[in-house]
Design brief:
The chain has 239 residues and is of the alpha/beta class. The protein has helices at residues 21-32, 39-52, 65-71, 103-113, 116-129, 142-146, 160-173, 181-197, 219-238, and strands spanning 10-15, 35-38, 77-81, 87-91, 94-95, 135-139, 152-157, 210-213. Helix content is 48%, strand content 15%. The protein has a 5-stranded parallel sheet. It has a 3-stranded antiparallel sheet with strand order 3-4-5, covered by helices on one side.
């Protein structure tokens, strides 16, 4: 278990959309007293910016890559801790946590995130956030590109259907009643293809990552599994 004298490490959790990365990372960070960084929220925030400033249309159509690249240095993204232990994403100082989770952002985020200028800018921001270590960060390329030297790397997976059901349930809970399961599944499959095939930092399992298919696991089982790996990593660094 983590103690005040334990070495502080970086935990990188990668995987496809809606595989449960954020939940897993957030719960581990809370359990061991680390800071949680949602890299996906950062890409969603940039996507929301692009949508709001007419730099792309629905689904990422008409994406103005040069215009967005020029705007990136002036975009600020941060995270605000909440009383319940969660955190909200801030875009240029504005709380956009609810807006970035909507389907319109989900449908446009993969094309935006595939842009080399966007990935390089956010990678630099993420590396700065992790400079002091003691963080858990989830995303698509954390263990391969952002923190290739992370002490603990996890590659999380689940079937597209399982991930779509999770995402659909989440959207229904937020009142997005106009969205169908079929639309969500199509979005998940489409994003998987873009994540796998983009030229800049495609999603892949790092050679030293520990794989986990959590399709049939409860949150409690997942928590125990990850905490065991975390503790093992800390113990190995103490030797």
């Amino acid at each position: 278990m983590n103690t005040p004298t334990s070495p502080r490490i970086i935990v990188a959790i990668d995987g496809f959309s809606s595989s449960g990365k954020s939940t897993m990372a957030r719960r581990l960070a809370s359990a061991v007293g680390y800071r949680y960084i949602d890299s996906g929220a950062m890409y969603r925030a940039v996507t929301l910016y692009a949508l709001e400033h007419d730099l792309c249309g629905p689904g990422g159509e008409g994406l103005d890559a040069d215009g967005l690249a020029a705007a990136l240095p002036g975009i600020t993204i941060d995270f605000a801790p909440q009383p319940d232990g969660s955190q909200h994403t801030l875009l240029d100082g504005r709380d956009v946590e609810s807006e970035i989770r909507l389907l319109r952002v989900s449908e446009a985020v993969s094309p935006v995130a595939a842009l080399p200028a966007v990935r390089r800018r956010l990678t630099a921001m993420q590396q700065e956030l992790g400079r002091g270590r003691g963080i858990v960060m989830d995303g698509r390329d954390i263990g391969t590109t952002v923190f290739p030297d992370a002490e603990l790397k996890i590659y999380l997976d689940a079937s597209a259907e399982t991930r779509a059901r999770r995402r659909f349930t989440e959207l229904m809970a937020k009142g997005a009643g106009e969205v169908s399961y079929e639309e969500v599944l199509a979005n998940v499959v489409h994003r998987d293809e873009i994540d796998r095939t983009r030229a800049e930092s495609p999603l892949r399992r790092a050679d030293d990552a520990i794989g986990l298919d959590n399709s049939s696991m409860t949150l409690e089982e997942q928590d125990r599994w990850l905490l065991e790996r975390f503790d093992h990593t800390i113990q190995s660094l103490r030797r």
